[in-house]
Amino acid sequence: MAGRKATITDIAARAGVSKATVSRVLTGNAVVTPEKRDAVLTAMADLSYRPNLMAKGLAWGRTFTVGVLTPDLASPLYGLIMAGVEAELHGLGYQALFASGAFETETERRAIEHLVGRQADALIVLGGRLPGPDLVAAAGDLPLVTVLRGAPGQPAITLDNHHGARVATEHLITLGHRDIVHICGEAGQQDTEERLRGYRDAMTAAGLTPVAVPGGYHEDDGQRAVHLVAGNGIRCTAVVAANDQVAMGARLALAEHGSRVPEDVSLVGFDDLPSVRYAVPPLTTVRQPAREMGQAAARAVLGLLDGAEPDLPAFAAELVVRGSTAPPRA
C-alpha cells in the first residue's frame, strides 16, 4: 500500500466483504450487519482510508456542512455556543462553517448569503440584529435554527432572559438594596430588551424606581456606564450588568471611583462565563448553559435535515450567588 491511497477495493479485500457492502457502510443508506460494519471500519482504520467527501456529498445531495452565523467571533459566550455546535456536528459527521455578523444588519445579511453560496446544508444563527423576516428570506429554503433569538416560523433555542434578570434584581432587593442600576446591553438586541424588562418588573413590583443606563456587551461598555452613573451623581448601591463582560468593566470603574465590591456596591452579571468564578471577588451572575445550547441547536438542525420534528429543550436561567453581592452598608 505504500505510495498510493487505499481504495474501496482494498477495504473490501481487507474486511472480507464485497465492495457493495463497503459502499453501504460509507453512505449509510442501507442496513449492514454490525459484524460487517465493524470489519469495514477496522479495515478503514488499518489502511488509513479517508472517504472522498465530495463524492459522498454528490451521492447524498449534501455537503455535510452547516453554516453558523455569530454576532462576534471573539465573544466568550458565543464562543461557548459555537464550541457546542461544532462538537455535536463533528460527532455526527458534519463540519461547521463560521461567519460573523459584527452586530450589523447588512453584514449579517451578506454573511448569510456567503454561507448559502458555500452550499451549506443548513443554518444556525446566534443572536444578531437582522429582523426575523429578513433572516428567513435570506436563508431561503435551507433548514434554519436560531439561538438566543427568534425568527418567524423557525425553531429556536432560547433562554428566559426576562426571568434571569428579574431573579438577579430580586436577589439584590432581598439583600436590602433599593438603589439598583441596570447597565443595558447592546441596543436592538432581543435579549437586551428582555433583560431590561425583567429588571424593571422586579423594581416596580418592589415599589422601587428603575434606573437604566446605556451600555453594550463588552468590558469598556460597563466601564463607561459606571463613569456615567458617577458623573451624574446617581445614587447606586448595586448594579445589574447586561452580561459578565460588562460586569468586569463596571468592576474596574467602581475601583477607579474608590468603591469596593461588595462592601460599597454589589455587582451581578449574566452568562456565568468560566472566568468570572476566578474574579476578585467571584462574580454573582445568572448562568445560561451556552455549550449545551449549542449542542441542542446542532441536533435540532440535523433533525430538520432528516425531516424530523426538532427537539427543542427548555433551558432555564439560574442565579449563581458568589462573593460580589452583600447587604448594603447601614
From TrEMBL:
Protein name per its UniProtKB record: LacI family transcriptional regulator
SMART domains the record matches: HTH_LACI (SM00354)
Pfam short name (any one): Peripla_BP_3
Keyword set includes Electron transport: no
GO molecular function annotation: DNA-binding transcription factor activity; transcription cis-regulatory region binding
InterPro entries in the record: HTH_LacI, LacI/GalR-like_sensor, Lambda_DNA-bd_dom_sf, Peripla_BP_I
Key words of the record: DNA-binding, Repressor, Transcription, Transcription regulation
HTH lacI-type domain mapped to chain residues: 6-60
